[in-house]
Amino acid sequence: MTGLSHGANLAIGTKLPWSRYRSLMDVGTAQGDLVVQLALAHPHITGIGVDLPEVGLIFEEYASQHGVGGRVRFVAGDLFADPLPAVTWS
Q1: CB atoms within 10 A of CB 24
Q2: Which DSSP category does 82 fall into?
Q3: What is the pLDDT of residues 29-57, one digit of tens each?
Q4: What is the CB neighbour count within 10 angstroms for residue 23?
Q5: What is the pTM for the complete model shown?
Q6: Start-end of H helices in 1-90
Q7: pLDDT band at residue 90 under the 50/70/90 scheme
């Protein structure tokens, strides 16, 4: 999925006005490229990627490789069966 969406994710991160937002949630995040690209482009943003539990390690490795592991995190969930997670940042 990252290969297909990376260009769009870069554009979303650089061409939209993110200055008034502090956080984001990507539901169906897969590897997490959208959350990672936004965190890279905007150091003030924290992000959460939500996807099936088996995707978690892939997301965490990708975020760590890009140096944003401290500002983005993975939350396991099934977007067709579970409510959106209630998330707080400590």
Answers
A1: 17
A2: S
A3: 999 999 999 999 999 999 999 999 999 99
A4: 14
A5: 0.88
A6: 2-15, 33-41, 56-65
A7: low
Domain boundary assignment for the chain: 2-76
Q: What is the pLDDT of residue 42?
A: 96
Query: 44 or 83: whose pLDDT is higher?
Result: 44
Asked whether the beta carbons of 32 and 13 are under 8 A apart, the reply is no
Tell me how many degrees the CA angle 20-2-62 measures, rounded to the nearest 5. Answer: 75
CA 88/CA 78 separation, integer angstroms: 19
Q: Is the pLDDT of residue 65 over 70?
A: yes
Give the angle subtended at the CA of 76 by the CAs of 60 and 26, to the nearest 5°.
75
The CATH classification number of 2-76 equals 3.40.50.150
Bridge partners of 50, per DSSP, are 27, 75
CA distance 68 to 62: 9
